[in-house]
Amino acid sequence: MLLRVLQPLFRYFEGRVYPYPEGEVTTPPQGLLPFIWHFSRPIWPLLVLMSLFTALVSAAEVVFFSYMGDLVDWLGHVERAGFWSENGLWLAGVALLAIVGLPVLVLAQSLVTHQSIFGNYPMIGRWLSHRHMLSQSLAFYQDEFAGRVSQKVMQTALAIRETVTKVMDLLVYAIVYFTGAAILLGRADPWLLLPLGLWLVGYLGIMRYFVPRLRDVSMAQADARARMTGRVVDSYSNIQTIKLFADTEREQRYAKDAMEGFLITVHRQMRLVTIMSVCLTLLNTLLLIGTAGMAISAWYFDAISLGVLAIAIALVMRIRFMSDWILWEVAGLFENIGTVQDGMNTIAQEPMVKDLPNAKPLQVTNGEIVFDALRFHYAQAKGEQKTVFDGLSLTIHPGEKIGLIGRSGAGKSTLANLLLRFYDLQGGRILIDGQNIAEVTQTSLRHQIGMVTQDTSLLHRSLRDNIRYGSPHASDEDVWQAVCRAHADTFINDLVDPKGRRGLDAHVGERGVKLSGGQRQRIAIARVLLKNAPILVLDEATSALDSEVEAAIQEQLDALMEGKTVIAIAHRLSTIAMLDRLIVVDEGHIVESGTHSELLAKNGIYASLWQRQSGGFLAHDLEDLDLHNDAPTSQ
Question: CA-CA distance, 349 to 140, in Å (whole number)?
Answer without folding.
Answer: 9
